[in-house]
C-alpha cells in the first residue's frame, strides 16, 4: 500500500450463522489465520466476537468501501455470513504498549 494513500476506517458488523455446520466450523482456523495476517499488516485494527458467538465486529483501515469488500472477500467464512459496513468519522483507542518507565 502506498504510504501517501489516505486510509479511512470502517466498522464491519458480521452476523454469523445461527447454527454452525461442520463445514463452517472447519473454516474457523483458516479464518483466524487470515485475521492474524491482516492484523499484523495493520489492515485490521480490532476483531471482536460476542459471547453468544453470533456477531463479529471488525475495524478495518481501507481506501474506500470497495476496498473493504475486497478484504472481506478473502475471509474463508464470507459465503456463510451477512455483513454491514459503516465508515467511521473517527476511531480512537486507548494506547497500547509498555507502562511508563520510572527512573529513580
Can you characterise this structure?
There is one protein chain. By secondary structure, this protein is of the alpha+beta class. The chain has one domain (8-87): Dimeric alpha+beta barrel (Alpha-Beta Plaits). It contains 2 helices and 4 strands. The chain has a 4-stranded antiparallel β-sheet with strand order 2-3-1-4. The protein is globular. The mean pLDDT is 92.
The name CATH uses for the topology is: Alpha-Beta Plaits
Q: What is the H-and-E element order?
A: EHEEHE
Instruction: Report mean pLDDT, rounded to a whole number.
Output: 92
What is the H level of CATH, i.e. the homologous superfamily?
A: Dimeric alpha+beta barrel
Strand content: 25-35%
Structural class: alpha+beta
Helix content range of the residues, please?
Answer: 25-40%
Number of strands: 4
Lateral arrangement of strands in the main beta sheet: 2-3-1-4
Number of helices: 2
Shape, per Cα inertia axes: globular
The CATH C-level class name: Alpha Beta
Count of spatially separate domains: 1
Tell me the CATH architecture: 2-Layer Sandwich
Q: Which stretches are poorly predicted, pLDDT < 50 over at least 5 residues?
A: none
Q: Cα-atom Rg, whole angstroms? A: 16 Å
TL;DR?
The chain has helices at residues 22-40, 65-72, and strands spanning 8-15, 44-49, 55-62, 82-87. The chain is of the alpha+beta class.
